[in-house]
Structure formats: C-alpha cells, structure tokens
Design a protein that fits this description.
The complex is a heterodimer.
Chain A (H helix, E strand, L loop, with lengths): L1 H14 L1 H29 L11 E8 L7 E2 L7 H8 L4 E14 L2 E10 L3 H4 L4 E4 L1 H4 L4 E5 H8 L8 E6 L2 E11 L12 E4 L20 E5 L3 H9 L1 H9 L1 E3 L2 E2 L4 E7 L8 H33 L3 H9 L4 H38 L11 H27 L3 H6 L7 H38 L9 E5 L7 H12 L4 E7 L10 E6 L8 E8 L3 H5 L3 E4 L18 E6 L3 H4 L4 H4 L3 E4 L2 E9 L14 E5 L8 E6 L4 H15 L8 E2 H44 L1 H9 L4 H35 L11 H27 L2 H7 L1
Parallel strand pairs in A: 4-9, 6-8, 17-22, 19-21
Antiparallel strand pairs in A: 1-2, 1-10, 1-13, 3-4, 3-10, 5-8, 6-9, 7-8, 11-12, 14-23, 14-24, 15-23, 16-17, 16-20, 18-21, 19-22, 20-21
Chain B lengths: L1 E11 L4 E12 L4 E5 L6 H8 L7 E6 L2 E2 L5 H11 E4 L11 H10 L8 H12 L14 H13 L5 E5 L7 H16 L3 E5 L3 H4 L4 E6 L2 E7 L4
Parallel strand pairs in B: 3-8, 3-9, 6-7, 7-8
Antiparallel strand pairs in B: 1-2, 1-4, 4-5, 9-10
Classes of the chains: A alpha+beta, B alpha/beta.
Chain lengths: ~800, ~230
C-alpha cells in the first residue's frame, strides 16, 4: 500500500508538473515565511532566557506618575536603592548593574567600551558562564572581568588571567588585574557590557543624584525563589518608598509619583506594549502566510479532485475502502507538505542573510541548539499540511463510484465544494489586500518620520556628546572653541539635551503665580550660547537666550532667571498663544522664572513617546551632561567628520570621541519600526505571491473544467469577447468581495497603529485603490490569459472529448 | 450463487423521483455467461452496478453465496469487491498516471491475501490477454483495443469468481470487439461467471443466457443452448 502511495504521488507529481509545481511553490513560500517569522518571534521572546534561573530574577523598576503625564514604567532605579533596601531587608539577595562607558587605550587609539559596575552577589543572580577564572574571586576590588571579544581585542587571546588593563571610568583612571573571562553574551539579551567589575563607593563619589529619590541611574535586581515571594515583597514597596523618601510634596506620599515595582526580568525586553504587539503581529503574518498557502493547497487539491474522480471510482470498484482512499490522499498531502518543508527550509537558509540585513536582525537556523524548536516547527507544519489534506481527502474518497462512472462529467465536490473554494479565494485575497495596505501605511509613516518637521534642521548637524567621565568643563570649552574654528562650521551650541540622546532627563513641578501647589510637570534643559542657532530652532515669540542679557543667567540664585519654553509647554500652563506666555513668571521651587521666548517644540526623542513640555534655561558653561551640536554647511559629511575628529583630538586627546550626525542618531527611534515593517513587507509580498499562484491554479482548473460549457456556448454563437468576459467575470466576483472585507479591516488596523505616533500620516484612499486595483488587475490578467486560450480552442475537440 | 429478490432502485432529486429498477428477481448460477440487454436508460447499468455492489438496492435483497449484500457494511462490500469481483468498463477507466503493469497491480492492491506471488499473478493476467509487451506503457500510448485488454487483465488478475462487464466492446471497432469477446468466453470457459451489459445482439447470442430489461423491469430471461 505504501509503495502504491509513493508511486502514485511520484506519478501525479511528474505527470502534472504545473499542478505539482504550483502546490509545491505556494506551500514552500508559505512555510518559509512561517518559519522565518516563527524564528523571529522566538528570538524576540527568548531574551534573557539563556541566563540560568532567569525566571527567579526581578528588576526593581520605577513607575512614574507625574502630573498631567501618562504613567511611565521604567526599568531603572536610583543608585543607592540597593543600600536602602539592604537596611530594611537584610536577607534580600540583590545586585546593581550600572552600565557606564569607560575609556581604554588600544595602541595609539582612545576607545570607548561598555562597562558594568556590579555588586558582590552579581553571580548569585546572573550566573553567567565563564571561559576562565573563578566566580568567587572574580569581583574582588582591583580586579576586572572581560568578555572573550574584549580579551581578543586587547590581548589577541582569551587566556589572559592575571594580565593588567588600564581603564578610565567614573572612579578615575586605574589599572586592574583580569580575574575572569566571560563567555560572550548571546544576541538575545539586553545586558550590554564587555567589562565587569565591582561597584565601589569611589565610583559614584561625584554623583550628587546617587541618593536622590526621583533619579534613575542604574538597574537594581533581586532574586526571589517563587512568584509568590516576589509578589509579597512587591506589596510592601509602597510603604518602603514612603518610609525612605517621605512626601513628594505636602500631603502626597512619595510612592504616588515615583513607586517601585517588581518586574520579571524575562519580560523586560517586550515590556512596552508596542514592541509586544509588533512581535505578535509578525508572528500572525507568518501564520497567515502559511494559512494562505494551506488554502491554496486545499483549493488546488479539491479542484483537481474532479480529474481524479474516475480513479477513485475505479479504485473503489477494485475493493478500496473509503479509509484506504483517505489514507491515500492524506498520504499524498503529507508527502507534498514534507517536500515543501524541505524546500521551505532551504529557502529560509538561502534568504536568512538577506532578511537579517534588511531587517537588522540576528535570526539563525541553529540545528544544534534549536533542534527541538525546529523539530516542533516542522512537526507543526506537517500537522497543518495533513489537516489541510483532510478536506480534499474526505471529498475525494466520498465520491460514489456508480455515479462517477455513469456520468460523462466529473464531479467537483458539488455546489458546496464550489462555495468552499470561492470562500477560500475570498479570504486569501482579503488577506493579501489588507497586507498590501498595511505595508504601504507602515512604509509611508516611517518615511514621514524621517522627513517630518521635528522643530529643528536635522541635516547638516553633528552631535558630539561630551559627558565622558574624563571630560572636564575646561576641556568642553576647549573643544567648543576648536570646533568653532573648523572651516565650514557656522555655529556650535551646547545643551544637555540633544536629538536621540536620552542620557539626562530632568523634570520639575512648576507653579504659576496664585497657585498653592505646583502640579504642572515640565522637563528642563540647560543650554549655552548659540544652542538654538545651531539647531536652527524656530522662534515663535520673544527672543532666544544669550550672553548679552545678563538676566538670562543671574549669578545670584535668588534673582529671577529668564527661560525659553517650547510650544508644547503652553497648553499645560494655560497660555493661549506664544505671545500670551511672554513675560509671565513662574516658580520652580523657590526659583523665579520669567518666560522671554517661545520656540517650536524640538522633537529630540522617539516619535512614539509623548512630546515633553520643556523649558530651557541659560548656562554659559553647561556642566551637567553637555552635548555639542555642530551646524555646518557647504562641506560633505565625511569631510566634516574628518575635520571635527582632528579638532577633537587636538583639544581632548585622551577622551574617546563619539561623533554622529543628527539623522543617524535619531534613526534608532525609527529602526525597530523600519525593521519590522521590512519583515512585514517581505512576509506580505510572499503571501501575495502565494495568493497569485493559488489564483492562477484555481483559474486554470476552472477554465479546463468549463471547456465543454465554452464549446457549447461557441456552438450557440458566443463571441470570443463574450466568453472571456464570462470567465473573467466569474473570477472577479470573489476578488471584489475580498476588497469589501479587506478595506475596513485594513483601515481599522492601520488607524490604530498610527495612533502610537504623535505625528502621523493621514490614511488616504490611495493604498486601498492601489491594493484593490492591483488584486483585480492580477486576477483579470491571470484569468484573462487562460480564458483567451479557452475561448480560442475549437469547440469540436471539447465536445468530442466529453 | 447470485440471487436478486424483489430488487428496486429509486433515485430521488429535489422534486423528481426516478425508478431505475422495479421488482427485479434474478438468479444466476456459477459459471453462467449472462448478457443483459435493453434500450438506453432502461436500467441495465444500474442492475450491473447493484450486482457489482457499487450501488445499493432501495428495497429487496441481494444474496451472494448465501450472504445478503444489500445490508452489508461499506467496508464489508469493499472487501467483497476486492476478493470476488472484476469490473470491465466501456471506457476502460485505466488510471492515466500509472503504467499498464501498475494499473493491473491495482487489481491486487486492496486484497488482504493473494493466491500466488503478485508478480506471477500480474504476468499471467497480462499473458492471458496478450498485453505483456505493453507493460511499461501508459494508457494514452495504447490503442483502444489494447487498453480494454489491459482493463480486462486488471479485472481478472485477482482471479474473481464474478466478472462484470459494462458494454466492454462499446468503444471498440469490430476486430478489437471480437478479440475482447473471445477473451470473455475463454474466461467463462475456465469457470468464471460473466455478466455483460450489451447493445449488440450478436454478442448477446454468444452468452448462455440473455436477460432483457425495459423501463426498469425484467421482461424476459432466455436460456440459450450454446452450440
């Protein structure tokens, strides 16, 4: 029986290459998309799962509830939270991980590296694998751990225990002895460090926010053996915060604005709703692509069923039972799916490098480590293949031999079968059209973000962070002066906010005259001379801050300081227009502030997050986290990079330079969406291709089944045109219905997706018209070609054949 | 051996009821060669299908070797067909995608036990109808007569006790028709019961009994003494 099954499968495949090819191609594409997106979803959901006992590690994250702002759950916490917790919970197993940049010398070059300062119990939470060294002594003072990559980079080998390395970080420059070599961290982690050493009091001696409630400096992790234990601990945190931090303002306990939450480490990667939705969406696209391919398979199989009806009748007359035939057809489905799985897997192998580079991803087919998962995937694919073979098998095996043999026409599964096929074509095309509209919308929005008005001139602008621990205020000024002298530079500004730089965010509750308590939260930034000029900010009213006005930066703190506010800040303060805000006075604590200018909002941050209402105050020397903005013109970007690098090296030779263009630095906000959109687009494209393959297959079978009808109509005098429009028309109906379904669904999904951006494109009819039109065109051309052939055939042949 | 008792067959569609067979009583003994005749649409093929158990009587009993097939399960009927019956069709009904040999092997595929080796049985059947030289060809590469001989080989490869032929020469020229009739007669001579539907009086004359059907009723059953 097995031999006959294999033989029949082989013969049907070889002798009907079009049918087999369409089926195989469609299924392979569907499987390839399904597998790729499953691998992607698995990658995104596997973050930190590689850490032993990852489920027992929790992050103590701060939840901000600031007046007039949406709740903001962060993963970070204050520097001294660890010590304060220790006072109240002496048995708590915890560690801090403080990610910092450190400076190292590699030959003549000054290089920045990612370092983490941690507590002695680090390995009791993060049991990271070592290549060399001993965990017990790895974190002793004066010692440092390296990853394999760093060991190779600085020593050319990994057996470097006992070697010394000079590192400059917030603790100042010092030489450390290498105590251990860490295995390189895998891709699926948000931990980002290559050097690890003990966090000591000396590391934060200059940080005056270390024990300031309301600051976020690092991550504090705790280990709990059970979820219940973590929950119990979390329940007491509001009291703990109030005990330690007191009141945020009179009558408001501190936890009401800055609460601590116990968060699962494993969930941190997809904590934000949008990322999670994106991953789920892509996983769904994968499933849908496979679903479309399965529909093809069902449609082609049942459409062909009619052609095999006589074979079924003969086999039954020879004594085959219905079960025999079900096994036969299910077996054929299984073989086809198995063949398609192999093709699909090969396609994935071939296309992964392409997909990875297009999507900025690191997906891999790793048979050794993901064997189980891959087996599960392929098993799932085979199962689905068999499930999609059930309907055709039931239809085929159910043919009544006497009826089939008596009739000159072959059965097609009856009206029900035709309806099923039509519904499946509708579903398939609806999905394809919706995919098209969504891809279009995603791409347009991403393009829009790249060119949208962000309140400043993003091109011809270089961003140079100058907050390295080795950077003194004098050096910052020296660099600024050096930059100003570079030919082509038109302005150099300093501020502690910059596009794509979230190193420092400070907020304060301000109070308008007459108010008892300040409940308007504004973010503020200190800016030096030329800040607004360098960014090319748009002044809406009043003036920019400058050195010429002595009041802009009074030496005496008790005097009124002048500020510039962003347009976004007008509404919460109740000003109707920019002019309305001028010369108004407000209070930040005891400090009096007078508004002397209003600028268009500078969108320095993610287009998805809220736009922060801001005020800017003048500080001739921005000392806290300064970032330089260099405006240049008439010089190419690469040439400007070269000139600025030279100027930096002359002014601050021992400090590593970070030099990025503004568009490049902003790109990190668009990148995840762009990557996901590329993946989505690729998935959608393949799904559309599979849909077209299915349509072609369906149309060719329908055309061949209607040969007799066409012949009779011709005998009765039908013209070629009439015949073609008859055949094409019957196929356009499901595509038109698919449009009716796809349009509202795609409109709803796209509109919902766009709401997450504070500046988004409008949903226009264009993509719907193009998507729907293209579907109709593809259907018309495909079916039209077949109809042309059918209409041109000689009626005599069809009639004689029947 | 075979007995139809008060067999009727009705076909119902939405609002039309068609009587294909009405109260047919027929007994056929082992080794008989029965020709069923009658005009188009009289119920000949329905009768043959019921005898071949690919259709069931609406009422009445169908006794085969003492068992009532009219009430047997589908699976039981499938096994019955595999073990006892051979079918020959007017339009051959060979499976296009299989070679002649593979088509003939189909005749053994669904049998639980075989009386000899499969290879030998297939070769004997091919020799018996003279088609062995075409074993590796596909049906569309053969002439009508050759296709029908292959179809006969498929029907007899399992050594059935009852051979059912539905106008086996209907699609053949007289020369090939003659050959097919000779094969059927020699099979009958070797002990196989043959029931054949035919329009041709000359072929019916070669049977041992002729059954005439008109409008679903059996109107005449004539035993012939063959010369």
């Amino acid at each position: 029986m097995l031999k006959n099954l294999l033989l029949t499968f082989y013969r049907v495949t070889v002798r009907h290459p079009l049918y087999a090819g369409l089926n195989l191609l469609g299924l392979s594409f569907g499987i390839a998309v399904f597998m790729t997106l499953s691998l992607y979803a698995r990658f995104e959901t596997s973050f930190e799962s590689w850490i032993p006992n990852a489920d027992k590690i929790y992050t103590l994250g701060t939840l901000w509830t600031l007046p007039g702002r949406p709740e903001n759950q962060t993963e970070g916490s204050m520097g001294s939270l660890f010590d304060q917790l220790h006072e109240d919970y002496p048995d708590l197993l915890e560690t801090r991980v403080w990610p910092i940049t450190s400076t190292l010398h590699l030959g003549a070059d000054v290089v920045s590296e990612h370092e983490a300062l941690v507590d002695p119990d680090f390995f009791k939470l993060f049991d990271l694998p070592l290549v060399a060294g001993d965990k017990a002594s790895a974190l002793e003072p004066g010692r440092i751990m390296l990853t394999e990559t760093i060991a190779r980079k600085y020593f050319g080998r990994t057996d470097v225990l006992g070697e010394t390395l000079r590192v400059s970080d917030p603790e100042g420059p010092a030489t450390y002895v290498v105590s251990a070599v860490l295995r390189d961290l895998p891709r699926n982690t948000d931990l980002n460090f290559d050097l690890v050493r003990l966090l000591t009091a000396a590391s934060h001696k200059d940080d005056n926010h270390w024990a300031h409630w309301g600051s976020i400096t690092l991550n504090t992790y705790a280990r709990f053996e059970t979820g219940a234990e973590a929950e119990h601990f979390g329940a007491g945190l509001d009291d703990f915060v109030d005990r330690k931090a007191g009141e945020a303002r009179p009558g408001v306990p501190y936890h009401k604005i800055g609460a601590l939450r116990v968060l699962k480490l494993r969930q941190s990667h997809l904590r934000d709703q949008q990322s999670e939705t994106a991953v789920v969406t892509l996983a769904l696209v994968g499933l849908l692509s496979f679903f479309i391919a399965a529909i093809n398979f069902i449609n082609l199989s049942t459409a062909r069923a009619g052609m095999r009806a006589r074979e079924v009748a003969v086999r039954r007359s020879l004594g085959a039972t219905r079960t025999n035939l079900c096994v036969q057809f299910l077996g054929e489905a299984l073989l086809m799916t198995a063949a398609a799985s192999i093709c699909g897997l090969s396609l994935v192998e071939l296309c992964l490098p392409l997909i990875n580079s297009a999507g900025g991803l690191h997906i891999s087919l790793d048979y050794r480590h993901q064997g189980g998962f891959l087996a599960l995937l392929i098993g799932g694919v085979l199962l689905l293949g068999v499930l999609s073979g059930i309907y055709p098998a039931v239809v085929l095996s159910g043919f009544q031999p006497a009826q089939v043999l008596a009739s000159s026409r072959s059965p097609s599964g009856g009206r029900f079968g035709m309806r099923v096929r039509e519904v499946l074509v509708i579903v398939q095309f609806a999905v394809v059209i919706a995919f098209f509209v969504l891809t279009w919308g995603f791409e347009r929005q991403i393009d829009h973000m790249k060119t949208a008005d962000v309140g400043f001139q993003r091109f011809g602008l270089m961003i140079v962070p100058a907050y390295d621990s080795d950077m003194t205020p004098t050096m910052v000024q020296a660099v600024k002066t050096a930059f100003q002298q570079v030919p082509g530079v038109s302005a150099v500004g300093i501020g502690n906010s910059a596009p794509g730089d979230e190193n420092l965010t400070s907020g304060t509750n301000i109070k308008l005259p007459g108010q008892a308590v300040g409940d308007i939260n504004l973010t503020y930034s200190s800016v030096g001379p030329d800040f607004f000029t360098a960014y090319g900010a748009t002044l809406l009213a009043g003036r920019f801050l400058d050195e010429a006005h002595g009041d802009d930066s009074p030496a005496d703190q008790s005097k009124t300081a002048n500020i510039v506010v962003s347009r976004e800040a007008l509404r919460p303060m109740g000003f109707k227009s920019p002019e309305d805000a001028l010369d108004k006075t407000l209070y930040s604590g005891k400090q009096r502030l007078t508004i002397v200018g209003v600028v268009e909002t500078l969108r320095f941050r993610s287009p998805k997050g809220e736009t922060l209402p801001m005020y800017y105050y003048f500080n001739r020397e921005v000392t806290n986290a300064p970032v330089l903005a260099v405006r240049y013109d008439n010089v190419s970007e690469s040439e400007m990079r070269r000139r600025l690098t030279d100027a930096w090296k002359a002014a601050a030779p021992d400090v590593p330079l970070t030099l990025v263009s503004a568009p490049e630095n902003l790109d990190k906000y668009y990148k995840p969406d762009r990557n996901r959109s590329s993946l989505f687009g690729a998935g959608a494209l393949v799904a559309a291709l599979v849909g077209c393959i299915g349509l072609y297959g369906m149309a060719s079978f329908t055309a061949s089944r209607r040969m007799l009808e066409v012949a009779v109509r011709k005998v009765l005098g039908a013209s070629r045109k009439a015949l073609i429009s008859l055949l094409v028309g019957s196929f356009l109906r499901p595509v038109l219905i698919a449009n009716l379904i796809a349009v509202p669904v795609a409109f709803f999904v796209l509109s919902r997706w766009l709401t997450q951006f504070n500046d988004h494109i409008a949903v226009t009819p264009v993509p719907f018209l193009i998507g729907g039109g293209a579907a109709i065109l593809v259907a018309a051309v495909t079916v039209g070609m077949l109809a042309w052939n059918a209409a041109n055939s000689e009626p005599g042949r069809a009639l004689r054949h029947e | 051996m075979i007995a139809l008792k008060h067999v009727s067959r009705l076909y119902r569609s939405d609002d039309i009821e068609t009587t294909a067979l009405l109260d047919v009583n027929l007994t056929i003994n082992r080794g008989e060669f029965v020709a069923i005749m009658g005009p188009s649409g009289c119920g000949k093929s329905t009768l043959l299908n019921i005898l071949g158990t690919i259709d069931r009587p609406t009422t009445g009993a169908y006794m085969f070797e003492g068992k009532d097939l009219a009430i047997m399960s589908e699976a039981g009927l499938a096994e019955h067909r595999a073990n006892h019956l051979g079918f020959i069709f007017q339009s051959f009904n060979l499976v296009d995608d299989l070679t002649i040999r593979e088509n003939i092997e189909l005749g053994l595929l669904y049998r639980k036990t075989l009386s000899g080796s499969k290879k030998t049985m297939v070769e004997e059947a091919m020799d018996q109808v003279g088609i062995a030289h075409r074993a590796r060809h596909y049906p569309h590469q053969l002439s009508g007569g050759q296709q029908q001989r292959a179809a006969i080989a498929r029907a007899i490869v399992g050594r059935p006790s009852l051979l059912l032929a539905d106008e086996p020469t209907g699609n053949l020229d007289s020369e090939n028709g003659h050959q097919v009739m000779e094969i059927l007669k020699s099979l009958n001579a070797s002990g196989v019961t043959v029931i054949m539907v035919t329009h041709s009086q000359s072929q019916a004359d070669q049977a041992s009994r002729v059954v005439n059907i008109l409008d679903g009723r059996m109107v005449l059953s004539v035993n012939r003494v063959l010369a």
